[in-house]
Specification:
Elements: E1 2-9, E2 14-20, H1 23-31, H2 37-41, E3 46-53, H3 56-69, H4 72-85
Antiparallel strand pairs: 1-2, 1-3
Length: 87
Amino acid sequence: MYFVYILYSDKCNKYYIGQTESLTRRVEEHNQGKGGAFTSACIPLALVYHESFESRQEAVKREREIKGKKSRKYIEYLIQSRSTENL
């Protein structure tokens, strides 16, 4: 199983989009400063959205699709739509 995820930082008021095979491990790594310059500067990060896929190829494709939108409004729409699905 592979995941596309969105993290949010209150400190920086920004979203980060990534993909991984281990969602829990990757979020922990980001919050330990092992995620790169952007996420290290914005700790703590909260997992606000994720999608699961059968293959890495599908996850990478979806990550690129979300990043390609370059729209905070679209990211917030995704997060909100997932929240209402769980009601």
